[in-house]
User: What shape does this take?
Amino acid sequence: MKGIAAMVLAVLLGVSASAWAQTGFVNVQKLILESKEGKKATQLIQEERQKKEKEVLAKKAELDALKEAIAKASAEKKDITALVKDYAEKEKELKRQAEDADLDLKMRDKELTDALLKKAGPALAKIAKDKKLDLVITNPAVVGYVAPEADITDAVVKELDKSAK
Assistant: This one.
């Protein structure tokens, strides 16, 4: 039924049925995971993530030590007002630091993905031209189904890796 609807739509739009076969698809996630450039970008993100995690864990350890100091001071019937205030401030800092780290990593991931797609552009264009494709889709959100012959990801990865040498 969907095939008939697509053909009717193609006729109404003045597009021949063979034009639909001139569309390719590149799986960006696969491009990132399998290409040399994508693996480099993934490694960079992992290193940055580990660094940020260490910073957050150090801050958490500081907070845990302060929590123990509060418990000890409380058990000894000492004034804990300043310690509690310091704890609340450090807890806010930790939360803010964790949120900032997450946002920074997401932005960095997007930057590296955009840079990879820019580097992949010539390889993608070459493969599309070689296969006589009129359109290549890279956004998986707009694709409901991709026939295996329309997926040019492996060819783009190979071409990109050739140029990365």
Q: What stands out?
A: Residues 24-164 form a domain with the Protein Binding, DinI Protein; Chain A fold (CATH 3.30.910). The chain has one domain: 24-164. DSSP finds six helices and two strands in the chain. Residues 27 and 141 are 11 Å apart (CA to CA).
